[in-house]
Amino acid sequence: MVDGQRGPNVLVTGTPGTGKTSTCALLASATRLNHINIGELVQGLELHDGWDDQLQCLVINEDLVIDHLEEKMSAGGNVVDYHGCDFFPERWFDVVVVLQTKTAVLYDRLSNRGYMDQKLQNNIECEIFQVLLEEARESYNKDIILALPSDTIEDMSNNVGLLKEWLRTNAPSYLID
Ligand SMILES: Nc1ncnc2c1ncn2[C@@H]1O[C@H](COP(=O)(O)OP(=O)(O)OP(=O)(O)O)[C@@H](O)[C@H]1O
Predict the structure, then answer these.
(1) How many domains is the chain partitioned into structurally?
(2) pTM score above 0.90
């Protein structure tokens, strides 16, 4: 249920490559929700502490990200896209979606993106061990967590449809007529 003081906020999380950005972009284009891609924000506004050579990614500065987003999230009406979920304030979100992809499908997606060796293996293991689902369960009320398959375009379309249905019930003014 949406916090009565603000608009709805949806978090879409999952292992890299499970389809967070594609799903959020589709949802945002079909509703009045504003898509916040945390990876892009961190890179664009330099909300990070430099490059991690071992993990081959930027080290996010979580405090800077939270400070930057506080006002927007307090107003509501956002769909946030990130491969982590435990550092956001729990009060920000009304629904937490964890996208899940079969190992073979994810392997192909990440290989096509040029991931290799340790980085590829780390991400595949992250998905096999359901790290993001576990992280979500430890960080949010289980009643607002939705674990959704994201293997095919049809899955993506179903997931967006399901979130639109959730909006219809909980925040219909965010639907486009
Ligand atoms: N459900 C799906 N069906 C088919 N292809 C998909 C699906 N989800 C994502 N893809 C494809 O997989 C690739 C990765 O998708 P996307 O960038 O949305 O994932 P992501 O979870 O946001 O990754 P990252 O965390 O690294 O940003 C893209 O080429 C996208 O088109």
Answers:
(1) 1
(2) yes
Q: What is the CATH number of the domain that holds 67?
A: 3.40.50.300
Secondary structure of 6-45 in the HEC alphabet? CCCEEEEECCCCCCHHHHHHHHHHHECCEEEEHHHHHHHC
Residue 170 in domain: no
Q: Which amino acid residue places its CA nearest to atom 26 of ligand 1?
A: 16
Q: Is 129 strand, coil or helix?
A: coil
Complex ipTM > 0.85: yes
| Residues having CB within 6 Å of any atom of ligand 1 | 14, 16-22, 39, 83, 109, 150-153, 155-156
Residue 1 is assigned to a structural domain of this protein = no
Q: Annotation-wise, does 22 bind a ligand?
A: yes
Say if residue 162's pLDDT is above 90. yes
